[in-house]
Task: inverse folding
């Protein structure tokens, strides 16, 4: 809880996968491969658990003004009670105000920021330095999370569930399997992110360069491409139902639709087009 | 007369709408989960899973990346799952859980209602975010002073409003769509399998387009996509 004898480790421009902007004093930074400082304080389990549970609701007040800034303040609050003066003390109030300002990150990776900011506050690091670090952290935590979770892990799990469905899986297998698979990754990621933030503090950028985070989106994406291509014809066939008279025609329409949507990428959203066509078919079926 | 009670579905829609962004983002709100749960609540989880899979194909294109605007699938899939699972009862006035019969048009109308609800749900999320912003502005002086009560209060208010949003959305959508489905089933003129084929052709095209857009740039994408497709088609032929 004291800053005595402890040197902060700011982000540097070459640390981490997201090319974080360098803070003003980046020239004084310790290289990314340097030793990790030991934890200044081990959080009581109750505090750690409280932070972890709050992380699940970090986006509850998401808005266009501060994005998930309030959520960061909300999640750091249990640990800030450990600051000198306790809850309601000057240090507590100043830190809470600092961490409830604008912040943008992927909601799962925001745990890295929460852990690192808590660690920095408990280490007594200069508030101006903490604010610079906080600003620098926004971009990388957003881009890493979007690429790994939203654009790779979630679609992979979704396609795996569709494959299980296409292979004849029942509700329990498909839904239970999907939730177990997705949340094994989800909860492990949140736990890892909080741990990394708490143990590394302002040196957290080095951890964001871990191979899993750098190459994970590519590996998961490759698996998803294979699983997805296998799942789609099977899932389509099961939804159509018994008999295969229409399957060839449907697959041909899917192929043509795919080519059109790929060529119109960025100009139209497929689901909106599909909504219009479906509405037209419903009208036709009702009025003819 | 509507033959099922909206309240349990509206409550489920509220909980799963909350999962989309506010708490806990465990993907309980994915259509394949939400529609199956709604189907189970209506007495037929298998029908819920069937329409959930069709909606999941649509949802593959709309991932919740960053601050982008996207459809809200949690409440919407509850609407779709409830309508499709309850359609035999809606059509005949039977109690829920009665033996189901294939009903021409039920999937078409239920999917249409769900996708339309997801669109409206996405708009409702934008309104909620603006409201959260207004609440934040009102609390700004206290937050700047480091008030924990304001910070915690904003989070709780946001979650509570999101819960209400999901409840109102699901109840309203079911209130409109259930009578519409009942009326549609009485006059539907297209063949049942053709109706399903239209749904699955559209959702399949959207999903395949999404898979291409997401993964065409990964190394060896062409081989992986072609290999997966070959395996899928082989499994189709062999079973």
Result:
């Amino acid at each position: 809880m004291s800053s005595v004898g402890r040197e902060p480790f700011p982000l540097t421009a070459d640390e981490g996968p997201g090319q974080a902007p360098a803070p003003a004093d980046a020239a004084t930074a310790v290289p990314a491969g340097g030793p990790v400082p030991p934890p200044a304080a081990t959080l009581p389990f109750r505090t750690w658990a409280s932070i972890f549970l709050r992380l699940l609701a970090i986006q509850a007040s998401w808005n266009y003004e501060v994005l998930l800034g309030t959520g960061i303040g909300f999640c750091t609050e249990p640990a800030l009670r450990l600051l000198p003066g306790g809850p309601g003390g000057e240090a507590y109030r100043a830190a809470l105000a600092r961490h409830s300002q604008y912040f943008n990150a992927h909601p799962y990776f925001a745990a890295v920021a929460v852990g690192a900011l808590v660690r920095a506050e408990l280490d007594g690091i200069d508030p101006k330095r903490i604010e610079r670090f906080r600003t620098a952290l926004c971009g990388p935590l957003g881009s890493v999370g979007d690429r790994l979770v939203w654009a790779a892990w979630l679609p992979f799990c979704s396609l795996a569930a569709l494959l299980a469905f296409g292979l004849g899986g029942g509700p329990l297998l498909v839904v239970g399997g999907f939730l177990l698979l997705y949340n094994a990754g989800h909860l492990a990621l949140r736990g890892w992110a909080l741990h990394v933030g708490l143990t590394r503090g302002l040196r957290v950028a080095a951890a964001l360069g871990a191979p899993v985070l750098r190459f994970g989106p590519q590996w998961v994406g490759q698996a998803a491409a294979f699983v997805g291509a296998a799942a789609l014809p099977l899932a389509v066939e099961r939804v159509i139902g018994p008999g295969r008279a229409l399957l060839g025609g449907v697959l041909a329409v899917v192929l043509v639709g795919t080519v059109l949507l790929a060529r119109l990428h960025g100009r139209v959203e497929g689901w909106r087009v599909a909504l219009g066509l479906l509405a037209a078919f419903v009208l036709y079926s009702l009025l003819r | 007369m509507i033959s099922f009670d909206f309240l349990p579905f509206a409550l489920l829609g509220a909980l799963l709408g909350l999962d989309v962004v506010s708490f806990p983002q465990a993907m309980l709100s994915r259509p394949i989960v939400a529609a199956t749960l709604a189907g189970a609540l209506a007495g037929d989880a298998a029908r819920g899973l069937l329409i959930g899979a069709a909606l999941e194909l649509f949802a593959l294109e709309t991932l919740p990346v960053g601050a982008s605007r996207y459809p809200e699938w949690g409440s919407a899939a509850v609407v779709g799952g409830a309508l499709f699972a309850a359609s035999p009862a809606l059509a005949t006035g039977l109690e829920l859980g009665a033996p189901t019969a294939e009903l021409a048009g039920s999937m078409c109308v239920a999917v249409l209602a769900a996708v339309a609800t997801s669109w409206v749900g996405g708009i409702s999320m934008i309104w909620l975010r603006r409201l959260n912003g207004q609440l934040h502005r009102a609390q700004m002086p206290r937050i700047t002073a480091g008030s924990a009560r304001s910070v915690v209060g904003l989070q709780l208010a946001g979650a509570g409003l999101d819960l209400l949003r999901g409840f109102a959305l699901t109840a309203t959508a079911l209130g409109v769509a259930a009578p519409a489905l009942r009326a549609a089933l009485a006059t539907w003129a297209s063949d049942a399998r053709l109706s399903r084929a239209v749904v699955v052709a559209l959702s399949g095209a959207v999903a395949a387009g999404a898979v291409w857009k997401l993964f065409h740039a990964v190394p060896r994408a062409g081989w992986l996509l072609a290999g997966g497709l070959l395996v899928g088609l082989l499994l189709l032929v062999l079973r």
About this structure: Chain A touches chain B through 104 residues (CB under 8 Å). Confidence is low (pLDDT under 50) at residues 1-38 of chain A. DSSP finds nine helices and no strands in chain A. The CA atoms of residues 159 and 229 of chain A lie 9 Å apart.
